[in-house]
Amino acid sequence: MNALRKAIDTVLSAACAIVFAIMVVVGTYQVVARYVFNSPSTVSEELLTYSFTWMALFASALVFGKRDHMRMGFIADKLTGTPKLILEVIIELLVMGLAISVMLYGGISIVQLTMTQASASLGIPMGIIYMVIPISGALIVIYGIMNIIDLCRGVKHEQREVKE
Questions:
Q1: What count of Cα atoms within 13 Å lies in the side-chain half-sphere of residue 147?
Q2: Is the separation of the CB atoms in 19 and 51 below 8 Å?
Q3: 3-state secondary structure at position 147
Q4: In this predicted model, what pLDDT tens digit does every residue of 114-149 receive, in sequence order?
Q5: How big is the CA angle at 133 (ends 87 and 144), to the nearest 5 degrees?
Q6: Are 148 and 92 in contact, with CB atoms under 8 Å apart?
Q7: pTM of the entire structure?
Q8: How far apart are CA 145 and CA 164, in angstroms?
């Protein structure tokens, strides 16, 4: 299971880095085209918007998988032992439920609905752009399952980092 987690982490980290690098290049091009050549590019603006969305959703799945997401720990930090384990498992299940209902089910629905609609400047189907929603939802569910297994085994995040 650690090999699967490490593989997904590596792929997501690489995807975020590549998308960010593309954003830097396209953003630089957009600034130069607008202010040096006085010819703004609508394609680069749209590409930046969609690539930022892809990067943000992939990064959110990665952060969820590492259990480094922001949380309010005023209740969880006061608990120890079995009550803390139960609370952490419930939290993972709630997030997985949200990812399944909104990101997977809703994401697949929006992809199907918008596959015939083309984006304004790029001319690609909007369904392809929205495809990131069910993909990141599936990754969050996979990470959630692995997190619950780690919680039940008593493997903490720090121990998982040392093993890798």
A1: 28
A2: yes
A3: helix
A4: 999 999 888 899 999 999 999 999 999 999 999 999
A5: 25
A6: yes
A7: 0.86
A8: 19
Tell me how many degrees the CA angle 99-102-105 measures, rounded to the nearest 5: 95
Q: Where are the alpha helices (DSSP H) in the chain?
A: 2-35, 42-65, 81-98, 107-114, 126-130, 132-153, 157-163
161 CB contacts (<8 Å, ≥6 apart)? Answer: none
Q: Is 118 helix (H, G, I), strand (E, B) or coil?
A: strand
Inter-CA distances, 75 with 27, 65, 69, 80, 86, Å: 43, 22, 16, 10, 13
What SS3 class is residue 88?
A: helix
Tell me the two tokens of residue 81.
């032992």
